[in-house]
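In the laboratory, one determines a bound structure by crystallizing the protein with its ligand and collecting diffraction data. In a computational setting the workflow is compressed into a single prediction: the sequence and the ligand go in, and a structural description comes out. We illustrate the idea with iron/sulfur cluster.
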Amino acid sequence: MTSWLGQSWRRGLLTTAYPAEPASAEEVPESARPPRPGSGMVVPAEAVAGCPVGALGPSSIDDGTCIRCSRCLAHGLRFSGPVEASTSSRPALVRSIPTATTGVEGNAPMSRFGRSLHVFMVDVGSCNACNLEVLSLANPFYDMTRLGIFFTNSPRHADVLLVVGVPTAEMVEPLRRAYEALPAPKAVLAVGVCPTSGGIFVGNSGLPGPLAQIVPVDVFVPGCPPTPLGVLDGLLRLVGRARAPEGG
Amino acid sequence: MSGGPWRLADADPMREPSPPAVAYAAPDGTLTLFNDYSDGVSRLFRGPPSGPARDPVELWNARRERRGPARLGPDEPVEGYGVFTFPYGPISMGVPESGRFDVRTYGERVLALVPVGGFKARGILDSLVGRSVPDAVLRVERLAGHLSAAHTSAFLGACESAAGRSIPETELWVRALAQELQRIYNHVHVIARIAEAASQNVGLAQTHALGEEVLRLTGSLFGHRWAFGALAAGSPLRRLERSDRERAAATLARLLEEFESLWALFLESRTFIDRIQGTGPIDRDAATRWGAVGPALRATGVPWDDRLRQPVAPYTDLYLELPKEVDGDALSRVVVRAEEVRASFLLLEQMLERWPHDPSVEHAPWPAVASGRGLSRVEAPSGDLVYDVTLEEGRVRRAAMRTPSQANWPLFALGLRGGVFTDFHFALESFGLSFAETDG
Ligand code: SF4
Ligand code: SF4
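The predicted complex, in structure-token form:
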């Protein structure tokens, strides 16, 4: 026991200062930020044509579809958008280029919940990376319990249904049942581009469509997968405690 | 928990039982062994010369066209007084993925268990058809994100063999680097999940922290914590400068030390060991008959590892030592994984020291109109992973895979037979199974 405690003491100093402080470079690798054109830059036609998911337009970029594949980086875009990129409306994820570099829309906080949040995660067809990034929030680097956020094993004890993955035909009914099992007031958090738009899987046969067509979604977290801080930003937005966006 | 390590020299194929199952009918009719779930029952086919010459690609296509839930294990009915089937899932407590387990029980003992997949079927293999290799890679990376390096490497390997593209050495080294980092992450994650199921909370936090550091290192090297976008030719994120490699080597040395002290504590913990010793056992005979792969196979005393048996660069030039375990229970599987974590740290150290100087790699182009069929096998964290890809005019005409999870589900089901339900999580995690890479 002594030795476990010794280990844990060494670990005590790891926890991030986020959201009191901005995200550090270690916490957010390049692809943790959505791509943005440089200021005054016109998105080149090759970049628009080369985007594999059609996220780029000449004057807009859809954070809710972008899989951060980095192809547009060859045409002058940079992973320079804010870590705090979640929104409470799907259309707000489509940033228009002139304002893309200045900030994030759709930040209206919700105050349905008190100081603590209980979260139930449902996987409706993910690649597991999103599941694992969400679960990372429990590790000592993020320690979400310090912010009053807890995972629960039952939808009946949850405030938030956190959904990862692109909805598959087989998961529509189990998802609806889980949603109905949450007591009111309840919220739904779509984590990653999969539930938000279908991401890379748009057009695959047999998929019923994005999450918002199945249950109402309160906050969308872009990314493929989002980093743990991206997920945290979404959770904090639900309770009106998200940081103001940093970076480009 | 016994015995010394195996070396390549000891792994004499002639003295060993049949190699693990491969979803491939070799054109020359040599030994072929694969799991066939196409008619809803898992059966092992021994392909030509004695059995029917069935093309595994056709089998998987047949399976995919059926859609809906797929039963992934032996499915003989178990009857008796008070016996009922308890469906667990597809949203199950403590299982972070969607899938179902049909448990036959009379209340306490697990008489039989059938894993049921298909809930995460995203139609990914079908979606590759007609796409260029780089576009297909975007989808293969996202088939099972925590295993993306293995899947992408196997897929690219099959495409390259189909197209006759010669691969710049550095690309193979980058793939191996990403794979070994992910192997460490996945093995450490298995240990963490077992610590969690055993309520070993302090050990859990620190094991998770170690996993986080591996993801951060991957993120700093590849620009992405899961190395998406980093392995395909010409990716702008994968240039590894000397300073990157030195920093990585220093971080890895520290992480290995942390892993060693953590693992020593786990081995001393009775609560940890007691929950996995004797849990979900499979013997060597069952393992080879059903075509087990990876740590599950090696824990029964069979030293098959693609990195040793069919090495490609850089593994041909690196020293790799594999652990030997014979008991076939969850403890043996976890010990094999822990020893492999150590082996992967050693591989990474060697790679970073001897990184090839090859400035020509950046944009090795794809032959624009390549056609052909290629096969590639990679030792993924949970075992032998096979891709079989046919290209036509540079585009994917069809693709099939046989993943470690597909191979190992029946073994998990057999191992849990006769056990109690509280063994479930320990057995499941020790096999490192994933519905994502089963369903595709
Ligand atoms: S990173 Fe990839 S998906 Fe995102 S906008 Fe650029 S090209 Fe499109
Ligand atoms: S959003 Fe990306 S990382 Fe998350 S489940 Fe979908 S494919 Fe995987």
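Chain A touches chain B through 61 residues (CB under 8 Å). Keep in mind that any predicted model is a hypothesis to be tested, not a measurement.
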